[in-house]
Design brief:
With about 300 residues, the chain is an alpha+beta fold. It has two domains: about 5-65 and about 205-300, Beta-lactamase (3-Layer(aba) Sandwich); about 70-200, 3-Layer(aba) Sandwich (Beta-lactamase). The protein has helices at about 10-25, 35, 70-80, 85, 105-110, 120-130, 135-150, 155-165, 170-180, 185-200, 205-215, 225-235, 240-250, 285-300, and strands spanning about 45-50, 55-60, 65, 155, 200, 255, 260-265, 270-275. The strands form two sheets. The protein has a five-stranded antiparallel sheet, with helices on both faces. Helix 3 (about 70-80) packs across helix 6, helix 3 packs antiparallel against helix 12 and helix 9 (about 170-180) crosses helix 10.
């Protein structure tokens, strides 16, 4: 099987043109003012192979927040620090058929966060950091990612201010429900830590480097933890679209409402894409299209 860098640039440019046409059907998120002002024409793609070869298209200098793409790496960090038994006492591993910010799903599950890739699960895991250090718990993960992922992530203070400027009653209600049910001790600090993690930002190159962290699992990371994270990305990483994408494309993938998408091609490489317009499920229209075209052209599905 050829890795994703085997594609020629001409083919990638042709798919990019189609992807940007499809992106016109997408929408920018309106609940974070700074994200709503992103240009729908912004685009960046980075494909990195385990052999060190890369393809880069679009504007590789664009900076964007990770948003929900931080969730797999929050999980990975805590698995490395705490171990699977302790982490999965706090959060489940089951897919959700409801949106990523569903309060009704959490209430139906009697306050049990169904998986780490939706907001209830990620806020619960973020609370572990805030319980450890209420002032800068998020910074331990930030430093860890930059060190092991060879990234240059930074906290986008303007994006964080934008997040805080527009109340998010759904996330606030989720945090209160989790606290009421005893799954976290302090809703306000947990939500603040979660927001800060989501506002960790970088370029498409940084995003590809994060993907390689999951792929290569450098010591002292355990490969079993990386496998767990990739499995949950496959079953839960695209919210309600996860099952459909697993069947049609078959790659561990995570999205963020900034328009970023990260796919891991086991043993071969990673595909990172950024394009702000989102579909109704909150996933980048162009990003998912690009991953699908690349995966199908090279038969990259993990189920092949």
């Amino acid at each position: 099987m050829e890795g994703p860098t085997a594609l020629n640039t001409e083919q990638l440019h042709a798919w990019t043109s189609k992807a940007m046409t499809r992106a016109r059907s997408g929408q920018l998120p309106d609940y974070i003012p700074r994200l709503s002002r992103a240009s729908p024409h912004w685009f960046a793609l980075q494909i990195t192979g385990v052999d060190g070869q890369t393809h880069t298209l679009g504007d590789s200098c664009l900076q964007f927040p990770l948003m929900s793409i931080v969730k797999p790496f929050l999980l990975l960090y805590l698995l490395c620090q705490w171990g699977e038994e302790s982490v999965f006492k706090r959060v489940g591993i089951e897919p959700s058929s409801e949106p990523y910010n569903s309060l009704s799903q959490l209430q139906h599950d009697q306050g049990w966060p169904r998986n780490p890739m939706i907001n209830s699960g990620a806020i619960t895991l973020a609370s572990i950091l805030s319980e450890t250090d209420s002032t800068s718990g998020y910074q331990s993960l930030w430093n860890w990612l930059n060190y092991y992922g060879h990234c240059q992530l930074f906290l986008d203070e303007r994006m964080l201010a934008s997040v805080k400027s527009f109340p998010n009653p759904r996330n606030e209600a989720i945090a209160r429900e989790l606290a009421t049910r005893g799954h976290l001790t302090e809703a306000v600090s947990a939500l603040d830590t979660y927001n800060r993690l989501c506002c960790l930002s970088g370029t498409i190159v940084d995003l590809a480097h994060l993907g390689m962290l999951l792929l290569e699992c450098p010591p002292p990371l355990q490969s079993s933890h990386c496998h767990t994270v990739k499995a949950l990305m496959t079953t839960c990483g695209l919210y309600q679209a996860s099952g459909r994408f697993a069947v049609q494309v078959g790659l561990p993938t995570k999205s963020g409402v900034s328009g970023a998408v990260l796919s891991v091609v086991p043993h071969l490489g990673v595909i990172a894409c950024y394009s702000p317009p989102l579909n109704r499920e909150g996933n980048s229209v162009a990003g998912l299209f690009m991953v699908e075209q690349i995966a199908k052209a090279l038969d990259l599905s993990i189920f092949s």
